[in-house]
């Protein structure tokens, strides 16, 4: 749950950065820039609610949490190819670690899925 909150915080930071870029840069494609910013903000809300659901031990929060980790791993793989290598490795490690913690037997018992 704490790692999901960490992911939420990192995505919130990215969203703030995107808002600053939207307001200060001269883009030819303003619609795409705003759409990306809104998408990032929706991601922050989704991760927050999933993390909160896991914190409250809601059974239905486990599936979305795993899907979020799959997206994190996929994004890390993309960054390994085109972006900063260190960030790609960090995202993949975070995604795998969080995903494993979600499916561990102790987490399964805590969520009452056992």
Automatic annotation (TrEMBL):
<keyword id="KW-1133">Transmembrane helix</keyword>
<feature type="transmembrane region" description="Helical">
    <location>
        <begin position="86"/>
        <end position="106"/>
    </location>
</feature>
<keyword id="KW-0472">Membrane</keyword>
<feature type="transmembrane region" description="Helical">
    <location>
        <begin position="34"/>
        <end position="51"/>
    </location>
</feature>
<keyword id="KW-0812">Transmembrane</keyword>
<feature type="transmembrane region" description="Helical">
    <location>
        <begin position="63"/>
        <end position="80"/>
    </location>
</feature>
<protein>
    <recommendedName>
        <fullName>Integral membrane protein</fullName>
    </recommendedName>
</protein>
């Amino acid at each position: 749950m704490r790692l999901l909150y960490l992911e939420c915080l990192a995505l919130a930071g990215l969203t703030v950065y995107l808002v600053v870029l939207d307001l200060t840069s001269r883009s030819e494609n303003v619609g795409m820039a705003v759409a990306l910013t809104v998408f990032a903000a929706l991601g922050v809300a989704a991760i927050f609610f999933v993390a909160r659901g896991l914190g409250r031990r809601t059974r239905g929060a486990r599936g979305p949490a795993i899907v979020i980790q799959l997206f994190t791993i996929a994004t890390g793989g993309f960054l390994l190819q085109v972006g900063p290598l260190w960030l790609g490795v960090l995202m993949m490690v975070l995604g795998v670690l969080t995903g494993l913690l979600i499916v561990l037997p102790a987490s399964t018992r805590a969520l009452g899925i056992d």
